[in-house]
## 1
Amino acid sequence: MVWTQVVEARPFAAQRVVCFPHAGGSPYFFRAWARGLDAYEVHAVCYPGRAERFSEDCAEQLVPMARGIAVELLASGDERPAAFFGHSMGAMVAYEVVRALEEAGSGVGHLFASGARAPHLMAGDPVAAAAWDAESIGRTLVELGGTDPELLDNQAFVDLVMPYIGADFRMLAAYEGQPRPPLHCPVTAVVGESDPRVTLAQSAAWRESTRGPSRALTVPGEHFYLAGQPPFGIIEEALRARQG
């Protein structure tokens, strides 16, 4: 299986930015990021059950999935520095991949955690995970602002996407961020100032996840602020500062 896709090959770029989609997301969400981050080679993670991996079974547990991604990254042979950007569920996946890489003696140059509570705030509730049915998922998608409500009246659309969206929601609800040693890399937490699901304090709590430098930033918008205003400037500023 192939976990990552190169959005636009740039073999001479000095750094990579690896992007982790939200629950129900696919690598297509980051297709335009290569233009916005033209000094970097942008990669996008593809979870099973969607896009080119539509025929595969969806993942059921977040940590084993993250460790599979880490194995592929370690085996890639690409030694260029990498930064990870994860949005919502993708922030948790990215965090667990960094943990696996650091355990293997590797790591990343920077972790950007977007629209997500800090890992230690994730309770891991199997009952809540089982409660995610099509109706509750639909309501949440509309609340978060990432889905046109009219699409949920399209049965073909629902039949196509609801299986993997539901699997992701249940996987994230079951994820428990158990107390573990902090990471070593810098962490930047970003949240929309009107996000209905993640408070500013929950986002800022990412500072407890690392021994490295940390920043907590707010930007205009709701949960999917990055759909209209991708945080390219935030990423570039942080990576330039790291180089300096």
## 2
Amino acid sequence: MDGLTLRHLTLAVALSTNMGLASAATSNNFVDKAAAGGISEVETSKLALEKSASADIKAFANMMITDHSAANDELAALAKKHDLTVPDNTTLVKQAKEKILDMRGESFDAAYANNQVKAHEEAIELFKKEANTVTDDRVAGATELKGFAQKMLPALEKHLDMAKTLQAAHPGK
């Protein structure tokens, strides 16, 4: 091999390795953000069950706990299967509780509804980005994470519609 061919081969190997690492980092970034968002949904909804007297808020909160707990478990299993790290639940719960609902003059129900709209808009953006990524089959779990994101989008969109209905029923001051 001449020097030029060797340099091109070295460059090609370096680029493909870096692209694989970037895809792995992207996969782990999605897992981190999706796990944090899911835990946050569960924790804010547990708080809603404690603090709200509204039947519609409580029904929505129960659905969020059920749906997001199941999605969190599925995501954790996918991550474990492909040796992707997920922050532990203790850390995520602590972070979620630190961010829970800025009440500034709003009723709890209005704050919860507003939080749910914002959280689901952010989740849909995150999941759409993952669902539309070009997957690298060399990256562990990339195809399955994309499939997971695609599978979850309809439920997240349904949750957003329901959260907007709650928001309209519980306007802030």
## 3
Amino acid sequence: MRAVIQKVTQAKVDVLSENSCETCGEINNGFMILLGVTHTDTEADAKYIADKTANLRIFEDENGKLNLSLKDVGGSILLVSQFTLYADARRGRRPSFS
């Protein structure tokens, strides 16, 4: 399992079709996470990533120190499936997903 976590003040996911644009998810203060899952990942891996993410202390406290977690500030998560995090581009110019 691979996660790219970005601290955001706002984020949203829009899905574009031929004639329209639909917002599928939107948050304010929190994390926008790109998550790649592969066939060897387990439920234990998912629990580990969830716990680690919820408890990352990267929000400022009243003294300006990075001491608060997502849980402490009541933040949100916008989770986006991103299988391309497992792309292997070591050979050639076309990524492999096998």
